[in-house]
Every structure is written in C-alpha cells, then in structure tokens.
Write a structure and sequence with these properties.
This is N-acetyltransferase domain-containing protein. The chain contains two helices and six strands, in the order βββββαβα. With about 90 residues, it is an alpha+beta fold. A hairpin with a 3-residue loop joins strand 1 and strand 2. The N and C termini lie far apart (about 30 Å).
C-alpha cells in the first residue's frame, strides 16, 4: 500500500479514487503539528492501516523537525503504545 503524502496529511485512495484511509496533522504553530484525525474505511479495518498511517505521519513530522500535539483519540492511544516516540510530544 502506497500512501500519498502532502504537507498536512497522509492518505490512501482505492483503485476507484475513493479516499479509504487518512491521517491529518495541521500546523498549530511553526514547530508543532496537531494530529487531529485518523480515518480508515470499514473495508480496510483490522489490517493495521491506521497504525501504518500514524507511523508514516510520525516519520514525516520527525523529518520536518516538528513536535506533535495529538488530539485525535486514536493518535493519543497510539503514542501511549509507542513510547519510543514520546520525544515528539509537546
């Protein structure tokens, strides 16, 4: 699965162009992004897609020198389960 990466979101569209998975992380400030939304279509649930989206988002934000303020409930839980990325949290 190849995710599309933009400045403030990472997403995946199916072969018909339908958005089926997404994580968004708009800027709160110059150095902080807010992971505020994750979405995975029912057809893809249970395959670890949301976790892969989060990993991709964290890698992008780290590479961009950003800190993270997660407000999406899934993102909050993901960071609790992945303390190796706690250095990114504000």
């Amino acid at each position: 699965m190849n995710f599309m990466i933009e400045n403030n979101r990472i997403y995946y569209k199916d072969e018909h162009g339908k958005l089926v998975a997404e994580v968004t992380f708009p800027a709160e400030s110059v150095h902080v992004a807010n992971i505020d939304h994750t979405f995975v279509d029912d057809s893809l649930r249970g395959q670890g897609i949301a976790g892969k989206l989060m990993q991709a988002a964290v890698e992008k934000l780290r590479a961009d020198g950003k800190k993270v303020h997660p407000t999406c409930s899934y993102a909050v839980t993901w960071f609790q389960k992945h303390p190796e990325h706690a250095d990114l949290l504000v």
